[in-house]
Amino acid sequence: MIVGDGFIQPAPLLLAAAAVLALLAGGWWIREYRLGAQRRAMRALHALSEAIIGASSPTEIAEILAARLPEATRATSCNLYLVNLRSRVLERVPTAADPEPMAAPIDSPPEGLASAAVVCYRNRTQLNIPDVRRSPLVKIGPKTSLPRAALFMPLMVQSGTPAQNEVLGVLEVHNDRKLGYFKPEEQAAVHHLANQAAASLKLQDQHAMREQLFRSEKLAATGQLISGVASDLRAPLDSILQLTESLSASAGGPVPEADLQRLSAEANRASEIVWRLVSFARHDQSAPQRVNLNEMVAGLTRFREPEWRVLGLRHQSQLSPEPAEVAGVASQIEQVCLNVLVYAEQRAAESPAKTIAVKTSVLAGKALVEIDYSPPNGSDAEPDPFTEATSAGASSGPTLEVCLGILRNHGGDARIRRRPGLSGIEIELPLAPESKEPAPRLPGPNSQQPQRPLTLMLVDPEVSGQRGLVTALGSKGHRVVPSTADGAGDIVQRLHFDAVLWAVRPGRSGWSEFNDRYRASIPAFVLIADTYDPQLAQSLGPRGGFLLSRPVQDAKLSEILREIAARIPAA
Question: How far apart are CA 523 and CA 512, in angstroms?
Fold first, then answer.
């Protein structure tokens, strides 16, 4: 047999090479599969965290956790317990899957997994139970329906040292299929979700407290108004009574047309006073809407004019000819303006000059309401009603601390102004963005898709600058989370952000260390400086950063946000 020239590989060597290649391919596939699973779990965890923060009630938090927790961890079910300090029990939040309420006394834990939840609450630390059926913490009782493994995590609000942290309840997580501890990364994920649930519950409590304070403020203002306009309401009613007696006395004769017109006018006046009082006490509509500030202030001025005449006040009004439309809850803005008016008229009534003036204007994208009055003891001695206690003469009127909080929730502010012989309160609210109906156009290859909302963190030590950027970004439909430089690192570990906007102020730094530390978890970083530095902008570019200079131009900001939004799907 004649064999041609060439190198012939032995069959065993070829088989070994093929096996090695198969092993390498299999290892690569397993690695990619695990990395893909980790990425999917991380995205599910971020989405779940944001959903928890946006929840409006404990029941909604429990429903979200029960429905979406298995996507982010190996948990198959969960329970949420909240502490009731008055009765000293842990109350389980009912859900659609488990609607029966249950309470576990803290001092005498019951049977079952609830006893482990009480131990977790008492010790203020997480508790792992790898085998529920053999755990001494799960007391005697039927165990056929118990899960195989369980993890308990306290709902803790960070407020300083660990001993000062407030525990709101316990998150109980189950695994019905497998024994053993939850993996360390899953324990960290559940700990993160418990912190998010605690933060959401704390925000809900603060919102409920703010609403309660606002209702109390409204009741106090309404009572003050009722006592103030009692004489005004009595006057038209007395006129109506006299006219009806006069008309009844002349029964059968011709009815004077002037008396009928006067009777109708007095009835309308009384009806308007009653309607205005009832409108102040009506249920709030929490949906924001466009509010014409000029019309609102004009209506309030007309409403208070009879009271001013009784008090002997000289008043004048000067409303802006420009449209002054703001966005917010109309009843809350109206209540704020009314409270300031009542406070100003009380102070002016005690002064010798007895003057009050109301003015509206539009300046630099802001709507301003200026209420000036003559102070009783001179402008230098006039207290700040937002921060200081008022004098005895004004103490019966409504306080303005809640009003200041309402204005700041709407992106506005209020301040007192002192001038020789005159004091005033200035209310500031951002103008509502112009509503423009986009012209319909056919989709083409170069047409831009609408920009999706972004989740942004804003770090700015100056309150005024932070408030302006929050308003500008919120008007574009983005979600903005303000933060301080010290707390930015903690927040970025709890929430997923599409970008971070960091405003550099003189004497304050820290943005470079933050960018280097969290660059891997944040797709984009926007630095806002006083001047534009080309070298700094060039150094930020390769790291996915941008540079903006103050004052921030809306067109440049929109361009950067569009570019950030275009990166997100690829990331």
Answer: 15
Structure tokens, 553: 């131009």
- Please state the separation of Cα 505 from the chain's center in Å: 26
Length of the chain: 571
Residues β-bridged to residue 149: 175
Paired tokens of 465: 């600058």
Nearest Cα to Cα of residue 330 among 299, 293, 294: 293
- In sequence order, the 6+-apart residues with CB closer than 8 A to the CB of 504 are 511, 527, 528, 529, 530
Tens digit of each residue's pLDDT (9 = 90 or more) over 61-118: 999 888 888 877 778 888 999 998 888 899 999 888 888 878 888 888 777 888 889 9
Is 168:159 a contact under the CB 8 Å cutoff? no
Q: Domain-by-domain residue ranges, the chain? A: 44-207, 290-433, 455-570
* Residues 358, 224: Cα–Cα separation, whole Å: 20
Place of tokens 């509502």: 432
Q: Is the peptide bond before 551 cis (omega within 30 degrees of 0)?
A: yes
Are the C-beta atoms of 81 and 104 separated by less than 8 Å? yes
- The token pair that represents 384 in the structure block: 């700040």
Say if residues 59 and 203 touch (Cβ distance below 8 Å).
no
3-state helix, strand, coil in the chain (%, to 5): 45, 20, 35
Distance CA 72, CA 83 (A): 26
User: Is residue 352 helix, strand or coil?
Assistant: coil
Show the tokens assigned to 425. 């309160």
Smallest CA-to-CA distance from 132 within 145, 118, 147 is with 147
**Highest CATH level, class, for 290-433:** alpha beta
Which architecture does CATH list for 44-207?
Answer: 2-Layer Sandwich (3.30)
Question: In a 3-state reduction of DSSP, which class is residue 369?
Answer: strand
CATH of 455-570, one of 3.40.50.720, 1.20.1440.20, 3.30.365.10, 3.40.50.2300: 3.40.50.2300
Helix (H) or strand (E) holding 207: helix 184-228
Expressed in angstroms, the distance from the first to the final Cα of the chain is 63
Query: Do the beta carbons of residue 322 and residue 418 sit within 8 Å?
Result: no
What's the DSSP call for residue 287? S
Q: Which helix (H) or strand (E) holds 528?
A: strand 524-529
CA distance 261 to 186: 79
Residues 6+ apart with CB under 8 A from 405: 210, 213
Half-sphere exposure of 503 (CA within 13 A, CB side): 22
Residues in Cβ contact with 202 at an 8 Å cutoff, skipping those fewer than 6 apart:
157, 168
Alpha-carbon gap, residue 317 to 564, rounded angstroms: 48
183: Cβ–Cβ under 8 A, 6 or more apart, which residues? 74
Using DSSP, state whether 102 is helix, strand or coil. Answer: strand
Q: What is the pLDDT of residue 321?
A: 80
Tell me the per-residue pLDDT of 433-480, one tens digit each, with 9 for 90 and over: 865 444 334 333 333 444 567 888 888 877 667 777 877 787 777 878
**Residues contacting 237, CB < 8 A, separation 6+:** 266, 270
